[in-house]
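PROTEIN DESIGN WORKSHEET
SECTION A - STRUCTURE
LENGTH: 330
TOKENS:
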């Protein structure tokens, strides 16, 4: 009888905990890149609307997954896939070109519950690099794969493959040509570009789990073989259920050197800072190094914070109260 009562009590506790565990209000935050060139005067009304619409659709896709009880990883993956397929951002279709006029894509994803992560770098035949990152995380013993090896692996897992020109838009070709002329004039002086268009997403699901993901074409005119922060776990992407989920955009070299995404998490866990303090502290660190860009972050309680030190950052969220906000400029 006593054992029976204990069993009933334990089952009740389990059921209540499960119910509570599923009771978190989902939250999703996205970015579509930051930059000093992201100023109102640089966009036509049509361009502005297209970007806003794409960000809205991306949020709705991700939030739809979360509301239906899907995992934060699924939400991050689906949101980023949509942004990769959209020509308005520097990820997937619409990616910038390297100095050779070719596309080299990077992406990463991380799960806060298990600290599992996956990343790809320097690929140009995988239609959605974020899917490859997730595949590496879940179906390989590795965290990061690059170039042809990553492509062979993605193909073997049944991911959709495309020809590199699939990613190249006329608009990007034109700006690449212009940037080449500017490069010629400056010779080898490396300058921070005026617009980064990397995409990123952080999400909290009903089960209290966090995930983060980032996808990019990198930086215009980057050297062939250059890898930025976006596929580096701890630099461009990080997620830990005990602290937060973070995605970065900006001049990748500075975000790598400052371990930006992990720094936010570490400041929370090791210094006891709040999410906003940790993001501000990290942005301050990047600023001191001379870096430009922005961060989006979300903690396990559903607090979100976005910060950037450029003129603008494509960004948006749907919070725990289901409030949606999308912004471009300061
Ligand atoms: N962070 C990316 C990189 O350095 C660029 C971006 O955010 O647009 O590759």
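SECTION B - SEQUENCE
RESIDUE ASSIGNMENT:
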């Amino acid at each position: 009888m006593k054992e029976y009562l204990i069993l009933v009590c334990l089952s009740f506790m389990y059921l209540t905990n499960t119910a509570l565990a599923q009771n978190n209000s989902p939250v999703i935050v996205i970015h579509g890149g930051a930059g000093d060139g992201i100023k109102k005067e640089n966009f036509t009304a049509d361009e502005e609307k297209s970007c806003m619409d794409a960000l809205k659709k991306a949020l709705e896709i991700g939030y739809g997954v979360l509301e239906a009880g899907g995992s934060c990883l699924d939400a991050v993956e689906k949101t980023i896939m949509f942004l990769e397929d959209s020509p308005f951002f520097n990820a997937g279709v619409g990616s910038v070109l390297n100095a050779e006029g070719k596309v080299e894509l990077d992406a990463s994803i991380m799960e806060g519950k298990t600290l599992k992560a996956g990343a790809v770098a320097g690929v140009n035949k995988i239609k959605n690099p974020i899917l490859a990152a997730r595949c590496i995380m879940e179906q390989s013993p590795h965290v990061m794969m690059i170039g042809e090896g990553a492509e062979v692996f993605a193909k073997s897992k049944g991911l959709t493959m495309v020809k590199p020109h699939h990613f190249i838009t006329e608009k990007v070709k034109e700006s690449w040509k212009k940037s080449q002329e500017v490069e010629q004039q400056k010779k080898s002086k490396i300058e921070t570009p005026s617009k980064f268009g990397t995409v990123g997403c952080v999400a909290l699901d009903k089960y209290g789990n966090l995930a983060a993901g980032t996808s990019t074409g990198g930086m215009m005119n980057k050297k062939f073989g250059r890898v930025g922060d976006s596929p580096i776990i701890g630099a461009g992407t990080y997620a830990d259920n005990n602290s937060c989920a973070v995605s970065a955009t900006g001049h990748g070299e500075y975000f790598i050197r400052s371990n930006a995404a992990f720094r936010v998490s570490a400041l929370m866990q090791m210094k006891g800072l709040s999410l906003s303090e940790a993001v501000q502290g990290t942005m301050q660190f990047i600023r001191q190094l001379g870096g430009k860009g922005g961060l989006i972050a979300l903690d396990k309680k559903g607090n979100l914070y976005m910060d950037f030190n450029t003129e603008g950052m494509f960004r948006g969220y749907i919070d725990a109260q289901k409030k949606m906000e999308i912004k471009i400029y300061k």
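SECTION C - NOTES
The mean pLDDT is 92.
The longest strand covers residues 27-35.
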